[in-house]
Amino acid sequence: MSTIRQQIEAVRAEYARLPAGLLAHVERVVAEARDLAARWDLDLDRVELAAWGHDLFRAHPPADQLRLAAEAGLPITETDRLEPVLLHGPIAAVVLRERLGITDDEALAAVRDHTLGAAEMPLIAKVILLADKFEPRKRQRTPVMREIRRLARRDLDAALLCWADWKWVEERTHGWVSHPAHWTARVRWVAEHHADRALPPILPLDDDADPAFGA
Ligand SMILES: [Fe+2]
Ligand SMILES: [Fe+2]
């Protein structure tokens, strides 16, 4: 049974075979995630492990990502087939568990869900997803990420929701589809946000005329 620091070193060593640009991004995410995790009093080593693991398969060619996902027994949707890069987190989570012996379920969930989010996310997963989106290079490219970073220090859930809103606007602006898994997560985040603020639930639209309005 290896220690968490040994696991981090084993994952870090995998990047020797991967592009330097990817390593540089992951190093920025590690630093960003550790900084945010410290503000939320999380275990920094567990967060660092997830940060190192999150993009292990990001640079693999799409055909390899589809093959690796099939070998890992992952479900592959039509959206995944069109955009195999969406599989890089789920593939990494399986490989980290099966090949590198990592058993920290929350760290593995953080790796798996860092691209699209999930309805249920442990704190580590929220930190990794957000750090990945607002590491220095990303917030330089997309200045609104600075605001989301600032918000994440106060309220991780509100920051996630703001990121999802930004993503929604990007997708509609460019005519991209929203991934069903992300949409499911987003709907839950919105519902929880309303519940937190004791707002009444959103009622389904009724096509029939409301008798209260006499028509
Ligand atoms: Fe990624
Ligand atoms: Fe990343």
List keywords for this structure.
single chain; 215 residues; mainly alpha; Hypothetical protein af1432; 0% strand; globular; disordered C terminus; binds fe (ii) ion; EC 3.6.1.41; bis(5'-nucleosyl)-tetraphosphatase (symmetrical); Diverse_Catalytic_Enzymes; hydrolase
Going by CATH, the homologous superfamily would be Hypothetical protein af1432
Alpha-beta content class = mainly alpha
Distance between the termini: 71 Å
Share of β-strand residues: under 5%
Describe the protein.
There is one protein chain. By secondary structure, the protein is an all-alpha fold. It has a single domain, classed as Hypothetical protein af1432, CATH 1.10.3210. The chain contains twelve helices and no strands. Helix 2 packs antiparallel against helix 3 and helix 8 packs across helix 11. The chain starts with a helix and ends in a 19-residue tail after the last helix. The C terminus is likely disordered. It binds fe (ii) ion (2 copies). One fe (ii) ion binds next to helix 6. One fe (ii) ion (FE2) binds next to helix 2. Keywords: Hydrolase, Iron, Metal-binding, Nucleotide-binding. It comes from Tepidiforma thermophila (strain KCTC 52669 / CGMCC 1.13589 / G233). It catalyses: P(1),P(4)-bis(5'-adenosyl) tetraphosphate + H2O = 2 ADP + 2 H(+). GO terms for molecular function: bis(5'-nucleosyl)-tetraphosphatase (symmetrical) activity; metal ion binding; nucleotide binding. InterPro entries: Diverse_Catalytic_Enzymes, HD/PDEase_dom, HD_domain, YqeK.
